[in-house]
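hey
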């Protein structure tokens, strides 16, 4: 027995040494400058002893832990190894932001609730989105600007067959299905990208990415511009080449050290150039100039990551284009600043909740006297915020507000404005918002009254 212990001791020491080395490598490597930043855009900042107000930061240890989680040495290699092991052995993803489906398909984790119908927006929130787009459309039309709105479907909305078995049970309809009727009743120029892409009878999203591929983007861009009657180059007769160098966003999140590329369609170099110092199509603000033959007018487009592949097709068609990821949408500034002839809003299905919580920044429409509701207005407490030449006024809406009730706000007992309805993301409380020219208000003592009609 003694002999057996003497023989096993070197192996035990070696085992302990290997385990210790593996445990210490992330920290020791960090000391020698071997840290790697998380690919997550929300990677934690470096910890600081002082808080923003100059006081001691009592959360410094917690902040240091969060920073370490996002920056430890060989981070990408460890994350990739964990994903390979958990995927191969258990068939699951160690990253809560990524859902591992069947047949190599990956999905965004925050799309699962909507896919199953458990993350439903209230009817009032759906109405708020649709009616806000109607007000934006009217605002643009009054200025001679064409308007189009589209919602980019979640990948599992179109291609849900590869979702994991434990996500397949649905308990309700997705928000994208439910909002269609509200948009139709508001007569919004809505491009139904879901139906458009589903009718093609082919897969138009990437297996390892959350977005449509370039063919899907081409189809949606064509539908947007056609809906506004704008001339543009038609790519339907172009036979795209096939590249094998596309790396999906979900693939990079799951396997940051060794992402596997997949195929992508290439329609050739579109004829446009950047007019500002944008680093990529996903920069917060991109300004472009077309170098194609006979481009027309100026485009303002509010977008998210789905527009990365839309942008080349759109930019080529307009003499000048401005693409913004900013929220809320700064209509009061951007349309005039860029002399817009066309306004397009593209928003991903998974961000519909954000749309309900953020009203566009534009002057509230004045309700003509003949259309003003009859009856008593109720005084309402408001919050006021000065924004340059404007004042943003917000307040709560009675809980009995129904979809179809739009909100009238009377200011100083005289002029009546139609307010945007917004759904507070934290409390689900319905609120209203109006942006008023400061010149329409008194220096002090303004009164605000509310009525639903």
């Amino acid at each position: 027995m003694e002999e057996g212990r003497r023989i096993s001791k070197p192996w035990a020491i070696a085992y302990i040494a290997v385990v210790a080395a593996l445990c210490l490598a992330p920290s020791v490597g960090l000391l020698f400058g071997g840290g790697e930043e998380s690919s997550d855009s929300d990677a934690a900042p470096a910890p600081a002893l002082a808080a923003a107000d100059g006081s001691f930061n009592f959360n410094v240890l917690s902040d240091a832990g969060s920073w370490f989680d996002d920056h430890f040495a060989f981070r990408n290699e460890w994350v990739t190894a964990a994903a390979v092991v958990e995927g191969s052995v258990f068939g699951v993803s160690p990253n809560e932001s990524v859902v591992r489906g069947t047949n190599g398909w990956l999905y965004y984790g925050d799309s699962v609730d909507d896919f199953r119908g458990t993350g439903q927006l209230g009817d009032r929130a759906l109405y708020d989105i649709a009616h806000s787009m109607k007000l934006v459309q009217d605002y643009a039309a009054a200025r001679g600007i064409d308007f189009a709105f589209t919602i980019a479907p979640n990948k599992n909305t179109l291609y849900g067959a590869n979702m994991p078995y434990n996500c397949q049970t649905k308990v309700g309809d997705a928000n994208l299905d439910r909002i269609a009727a509200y948009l139709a009743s508001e007569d919004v120029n809505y491009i139904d990208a879901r139906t458009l892409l589903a009718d093609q009878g082919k897969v138009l999203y990437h297996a390892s990415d959350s977005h449509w591929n370039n063919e899907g983007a081409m189809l949606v861009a064509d539908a947007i511009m056609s809906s506004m009657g704008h001339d543009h180059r038609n790519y339907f007769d172009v036979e795209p080449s096939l590249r094998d160098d596309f790396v999906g966003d979900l693939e990079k999140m799951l396997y940051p050290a060794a992402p596997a590329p997949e195929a992508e369609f290439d329609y050739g170099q579109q004829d446009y150039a950047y007019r500002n110092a944008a680093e990529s199509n996903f920069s917060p603000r991109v300004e472009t100039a077309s170098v194609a033959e006979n481009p027309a007018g100026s485009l303002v487009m509010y977008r998210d990551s789905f527009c990365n592949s839309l942008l080349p097709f759109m930019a080529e068609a307009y003499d000048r284009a401005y693409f913004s990821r900013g929220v809320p949408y700064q209509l009061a500034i951007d349309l005039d600043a860029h002399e817009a002839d066309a306004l397009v809003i593209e928003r991903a299905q998974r961000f519909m909740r954000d749309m309900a919580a953020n009203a566009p920044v534009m002057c509230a429409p004045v309700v003509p006297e003949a259309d003003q509701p009859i009856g008593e207005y109720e005084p309402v407490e408001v919050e006021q915020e000065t924004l340059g030449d404007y004042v943003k006024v917000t307040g709560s809406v009675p809980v009995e507000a129904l979809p179809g009730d739009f909100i009238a706000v009377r200011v100083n007992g005289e002029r009546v404005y139609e307010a945007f309805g917004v759904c507070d993301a934290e409390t689900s409380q319905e609120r209203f918002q109006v942006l008023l020219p400061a010149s329409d208000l008194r220096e002090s003592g303004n009164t605000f009254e509310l009525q639903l009609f």
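Residues 25-37+64-92 form one domain. The longest strand covers residues 415-423.
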